[in-house]
């Protein structure tokens, strides 16, 4: 009897604002370009320099809603009460079927929605939480970015407290104390799941 070929599991990456998820992911991709990172769809307009299919899949709202109704997204959300965002399901399934290491970087709410939908779809998922060394260090990084007003920083830090409290919901926690080390730990998780050791 032939055993079904083992497919890798989807790696869902979450963590609080300013923890450095994108930085860790970039360091990982620099060393392991064979990893595929899911590209989200959105109904918002492209920002200067953004490319369709690279940064996001940009689409009109009516197309997005039609695809959502047809079950073509792994998860969707409305952000800031305006634009729709979603993870196209088909590319995720195709990459998993070809045993390509597949990452979905998403916020806490999105990860929870993936958890619900993955059960329906029979998708195998590993949930990875990127954590800061401490809340004070997270605050230092957020303020150090200089990209938000003090009011926005305060709001993001309140959200971060909620996100940090959700850490026990995840399969693996990686503390982003040092980017290259965190990227190595993330690779170790992926390599184990995909039999790449």
TrEMBL record:
EC number: 2.7.4.8
Main location: cytoplasm
Gene Ontology MF: a single term: ATP binding
Keyword Transferase among record annotations: yes
Subcellular location: Cytoplasm
Entry function: Essential for recycling GMP and indirectly, cGMP.
Name of the protein in question: Guanylate kinase
């Amino acid at each position: 009897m032939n055993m079904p070929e083992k497919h890798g599991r989807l790696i869902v990456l979450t963590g609080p604002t300013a923890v450095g998820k994108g930085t860790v992911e970039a360091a990982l991709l620099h060393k392991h370009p064979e990893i595929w990172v899911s590209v989200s769809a959105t109904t918002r307009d492209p920002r200067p320099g953004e490319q369709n299919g690279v940064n996001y899949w940009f689409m009109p709202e009516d197309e997005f809603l039609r695809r959502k109704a047809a079950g073509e997204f792994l998860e969707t959300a409305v952000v800031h009460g305006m634009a729709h965002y979603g993870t196209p399901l088909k590319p995720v399934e195709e990459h998993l079927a070809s045993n390509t290491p597949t990452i979905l970087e998403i916020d806490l709410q999105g990860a929870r929605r993936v958890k619900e939908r993955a059960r329906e779809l029979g998708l195998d998922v590993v949930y990875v939480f990127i954590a800061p060394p401490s809340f004070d260090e997270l605050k230092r990084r957020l303020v150090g970015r200089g990209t938000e007003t003090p009011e926005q920083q305060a709001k993001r830090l309140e959200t971060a407290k909620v996100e940090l409290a959700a850490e026990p919901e995840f399969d693996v926690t990686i503390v982003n104390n040092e980017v290259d080390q965190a990227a190595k730990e993330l690779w170790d998780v992926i390599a184990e799941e995909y039999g790449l050791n």
